[in-house]
Write a structure and sequence with these properties.
Layout: H1 3-12, H2 17-30, E1 46-48, E2 51-53, E3 57-59, H3 70-74, E4 80-86, E5 99-102, E6 107-110, H4 119-126, E7 135-139, H5 148-159, E8 165-169, H6 184-198, E9 207-211, H7 217-230, E10 234-237, E11 257-260, H8 264-278, E12 284-287, H9 293-302, E13 306-309, H10 313-316, H11 320-334, H12 340-343
Parallel strand pairs: 3-4, 3-13, 4-7, 7-8, 8-9, 9-10, 10-12, 12-13
Antiparallel strand pairs: 1-2, 5-6, 6-11
Helix pairs in contact: 5-6, 6-7, 7-8, 8-9, 9-11
Length: 352
C-alpha cells in the first residue's frame, strides 16, 4: 500500500462507514486515487463462462451499487467488475445505520437491503461503460414486490444489453424471505424465468447464481442439482453470513450479513463442497474473506475458476486487486502452473 492510499484510508476510517463508502466512490470518480491500470500476464489470462478475463480477480457486487464509478474501476487492476444489486424500481433500503466496521476482525456487517437507484437509471449508466472492461450486474428484487422471482427477469430485460454477465442474487440476508428462493422448487422456477428473459436479448450473456454460505449439506446438494440442470453458467460462492462465531469487535452483535476475514474458511469449505458436487461441470467463483494473493490462490485450488473481493479493500485500499493479481501470478509460477485453469481444484481435498 502506498503512502497516498494509507493516508486516504486513515481519513476514511474517521468517518461513519457508509459516508466513507460514498467518499471512496467520489475519490475514484474525481481521479484522486492513483490506479494501476489493467493487470495481466499470459499466466493470469483466463476464461470464465466464455468471458475472456485479463486476470481472475474480480470486484464483488456491493461496492459500486449504482454503477457510478465504472471507468476508474476498470483501471483498478480488477479482471472483471460486478455492480449492483439493481432492483426494478428504486428503493432506499433499510434505515441507517446499516454498515458497521469490525476493525479487530478485519470484517464488516451490512444490512443495506438493496438500496439502489433502480434498473432504469443503472442501465443508462451502464450504457456509457468503458470499452474493453468485463462488467456484470447483480440482479435483485424489490422488498415490496408481489412477485420477487419475476423481478430478477425484469432487471435482466432492462439492463441485459449493457452488461457482460448477470448474477441472480437470492442470498442476501437483508431482504426478508429472499433466501427462501434458494429452495429447490423456488430456485428452479426463478432461474427458468431468468433464462427465458436471457433468450429475448439480442446478445445472450452468461448467468451466474450467488449462494449463501449458511446452506446445510442437503440445501447445498439441492443448489448444485438445480444449477447443473438450469442452464446457468457459473455459481458464486458465497455471499455474506449470518454466523457470528469468534468475533471480537464491538459491533459484532449488529444484525445483517457478515463479510471479511472471518468468512474465509466457511465460504471456502462451501466452495470446495460445491466443486465436488458439480464435478467441474460448472465454473465457480470464490468469494469471502479474500485479502491476499494467498487467499485467492487457496480459493482457486479449492475449486474456483475466478475470485471476487470487496470488504478487504476497507482495510487494504483499492490497490489490493492489483497486488492480489500480481501475487497470484507469482504463486502460480512458483508451483509450476502455466495458467489459472491448471490450478483449479488441485487442493480441494484440503477443504472437504
Amino acid at each position: 500500500m502506498n503512502a497516498i492510499e494509507h493516508l486516504g484510508l486513515a481519513l476514511l476510517h474517521r468517518c461513519d462507514p457508509e459516508r466513507a463508502h460514498g467518499l471512496s466512490l467520489i475519490a475514484l470518480q474525481s481521479g484522486l486515487v492513483p490506479l494501476p491500470g489493467v493487470v495481466t500476464s499470459p499466466r493470469l489470462k483466463t476464461t470464465l463462462a466464455g468471458l475472456d478475463l485479463p486476470n481472475p480477480v474480480g470486484l464483488a457486487a456491493g461496492f459500486d451499487k449504482n454503477a457510478v464509478a465504472l471507468a476508474p474501476l476498470a483501471r483498478s487492476g480488477f479482471g472483471f467488475i460486478e455492480v449492483g444489486a439493481a432492483t426494478p424500481r428504486p428503493q432506499p433500503g433499510n434505515p441507517r445505520p446499516r454498515l458497521f466496521r469490525l476493525t479487530e476482525d478485519r470484517a464488516a456487517i451490512n444490512r443495506f437491503g438493496f438500496n439502489n437507484d433502480g434498473a432504469e437509471v443503472i442501465a443508462a449508466r451502464l450504457a456509457r461503460r468503458p470499452k474493453g472492461a468485463v462488467i456484470g450486474l447483480n440482479l435483485g428484487a424489490n422488498k415490496d414486490s408481489a412477485d420477487r422471482a419475476a423481478d430478477f427477469a425484469r432487471v435482466l430485460t432492462m439492463c441485459g444489453a449493457q452488461i457482460d454477465f448477470a448474477t441472480v442474487n437470492v442470498s442476501s440476508p437483508n431482504t426478508e424471505k429472499l433466501r427462501d428462493l434458494q429452495g429447490k422448487a423456488a430456485l428452479s422456477a426463478l432461474l427458468a424465468g431468468v433464462i427465458e428473459a436471457r433468450g429475448t436479448l439480442a446478445r445472450p450473456i452468461p448467468i451466474f447464481l450467488k449462494i449463501a454460505p449458511d446452506l446445510d449439506a442437503a440445501g447445498l446438494e439441492d443448489v448444485a442439482e438445480v444449477a447443473l440442470g438450469s442452464g446457468i453458467d457459473a455459481v458464486i460462492a458465497t455471499n455474506t453470513t449470518l454466523a457470528r462465531e469468534g468475533l471480537k469487535s464491538a459491533s459484532k452483535g449488529e444484525a445483517g450479513g457478515l463479510s471479511g476475514a472471518p468468512l474465509f474458511e466457511k465460504s471456502t469449505r462451501v466452495l470446495a463442497r460445491l466443486s465436488h458436487l458439480t464435478d467441474g461441470k460448472l465454473p465457480l467463483i470464490g468469494v469471502g474473506g479474500i485479502s491476499s494473493a494467498e487467499d485467492a490462490y487457496a480459493k482457486i485450488r479449492a475449486g474456483a475458476s475466478a475470485v471476487q473481493l470487496y470488504t478487504a479493500m476497507v482495510y487494504e485500499g483499492i490497490g489490493l486487486a492489483a497486488r492480489v493479481a500480481r501475487g497470484l501470478d507469482a504463486l502460480l509460477a512458483r508451483d509450476g502452473f502455466a495458467s489459472v485453469a491448471e490450478a483449479v481444484a488441485t487442493g480441494r481435498a484440503d477443504w472437504l
